[in-house]
Amino acid sequence: MHAAFYESVGPAGEVLQLAELPDPAPAPGEVRVRVQWSGVNPSDVKSRAGLRSKVMPFPRVIPHSDGMGVIDAVGEGVSAARVGERVWLWNAAWGRANGTAAQMICLPQRQAVPLPEGVSGEAGACLGIPALTAMHAVLTQGGVAGKRVLIAGGAGAVSHYALQIASRMGAAQLFTTVSSDAKAALAREAGADVALNYKSEPVVERVRELTHGKGLDRIIELDLAVNGTLDLDMLRTGGELVVYGSSPLPLNLPFGVLLAKNIRLAFFIVYHLDDEERARATGALQRALARGELAHNIALRLPLQSIVQAHEAVEQGRAVGNVVLQVV
Fold first, then answer.
1. How far is the C-alpha of 146 from the C-alpha of 169, rounded, in Å?
2. Do 25 and 68 lie in a common domain?
3. What pLDDT is recorded for position 182?
4. Which helix (H) or strand (E) holds 51?
5. Are residues 108 and 184 in the same domain?
6. Are residues 317 and 253 part of one domain?
7. Same domain, 195 and 260
8. Sign, Cα dihedral of 25, 278, 69, 50
9. CA-based R_g, the chain, Å
10. Residues of the chain where predicted confidence (pLDDT) is lower than 70
11. In Å, how far are 137, 179, 282 from 277, measured between CA atoms?
């Protein structure tokens, strides 16, 4: 099979390689997927760059946790009826040496989820991290029905899904933050009632004004280190701060404010959802996909041979939306 991989961490152009590797065979309980699309996420880029650890977890790593393809073989204990299924994948490279940046991958069968009819292959490569993160962020802590919600960075891969989901799940008033008019338009199309340009507007004051001084019930945050203090100013007493990401900066949250306002903090990483949480988020996502309720903001489609360009686009923040590679 043709595959992309790295054997040391570092800059994309220096460590990513392309070569022919042996075809894998599924072990008991596994399926083999012939990959059609591989999703590139910030976590993939950080791991390859060595930002998480300078030590290679395996001698060779085929990157990318998200992907889509067709099951072409099954291991012992897996129904042969699964052969031919179009599937989307989650956690393909999490704690594993072999991800989706290859023509074939073997993984436990539960990590290959049937892709509903009518959903494109490239969209299927955006579900494991962006869409599941968004779904869990909206569903957790009792959901968003009837709540005033701000989803930070509304044009991002996760936030674009979260806006659509929160809008359909009954958020009473839906805010987001953006850095340009074009991103504001994208966020409004996804369901935002208000898109605030944090470069040109006083976000805290505008939220206070638009909520008539009541504040927000929930904030879904992608960068707590940068935005945490502002978030606490915008949340009402008893408000919820749901966090799935942060810059590698010191995290300083004022304990007195957290205590006085009874703020509820909820941190999560999508890789570590427990079985119940994952089943709930996956089920809700499958239903939304089957009903055609989600738009997929794919900013860049490239062939596997352009994996260096894809990693650099994600690393440098040049792609407004998801980045996917076609694997042929």
1. 9
2. yes
3. 95
4. none
5. no
6. no
7. yes
8. negative
9. 20
10. none
11. 11, 32, 8
Question: What is the rounded distance in angstroms from the CA atom of residue 17 to the CA atom of residue 107?
Answer: 22
Domain that holds residue 224: 130-271
Phi, psi of 108 (to 5 degrees): -55, 140
Give 233's Cβ-side CA count (13 Å radius): 12
Domain count, the chain: 2
Nearest CA-CA partner of 66 in 108, 5, 131, 126 = 126
CA distance 94 to 72: 22
- In whole angstroms, give the CA distance from residue 325 to residue 40: 8
Instruction: Answer yes or no: do 307 and 260 share one domain.
Output: no
> Is the residue at 177 inside a domain?
yes
pLDDT of residue 52: 85
d(CA 262, CA 62) in angstroms, rounded, equals 44
Question: What is the predicted pLDDT for the residue at 328?
Answer: 84
Task: Write down the pLDDT at residue 296.
Answer: 97
pLDDT tens figures, 88-147? 999 999 999 999 999 999 999 999 999 999 999 999 999 999 999 999 999 999 999 999
Neighbours of 22 (CB within 10 A): 8
